[in-house]
């Protein structure tokens, strides 16, 4: 549902790139990578009916510094 509502990390990264002045041309590759991941993710959901493992199994890493 998060992807369907454009609230996932891929959309958020693209939104930051769009909104930070002078970041657009520097981060064009990253923005395209986010678009590609969204396409891959949606295809995976259509085929398997669930999020990709890298999304489904993701957890916050604790910073031990």
List the keywords:
single chain; 65 residues; mainly alpha; globular
Please characterize this protein's 3D structure.
The chain is mainly α and 65 residues long. The protein has helices at 9-19, 28-48, 53-56. The termini are far apart. The model has no long low-confidence stretch (mean pLDDT 87).
- β-strand number: 0
Helix content: 55-70%
The backbone outline, from C-alpha atoms, is: globular
On the 0 to 100 scale, the average pLDDT is 87
What pattern of helices and strands is seen along the backbone? HHH
Largest sheet: none
Poorly predicted sequence stretches spanning 5 or more consecutive residues: none
Structural class: mainly alpha
How many angstroms separate the termini?
Answer: 34 Å
Rg from Cα: 14 Å
Number of helices: 3
Proportion of residues in extended strands = under 5%
Secondary-structure map:
Blueprint: H1 9-19, H2 28-48, H3 53-56
Q: Can you describe this structure in just a few lines?
A:
Helices cover 55% and strands 0% of the residues.
């Amino acid at each position: 549902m998060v992807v369907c509502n454009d609230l996932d990390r891929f959309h958020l990264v693209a939104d930051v790139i769009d909104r930070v002045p002078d970041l657009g041309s520097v981060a064009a590759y990253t923005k395209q990578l986010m678009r590609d991941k969204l396409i891959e993710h949606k295809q995976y959901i259509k085929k398997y009916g669930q999020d990709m493992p890298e999304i489904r199994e993701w957890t916050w890493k604790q910073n031990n510094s």
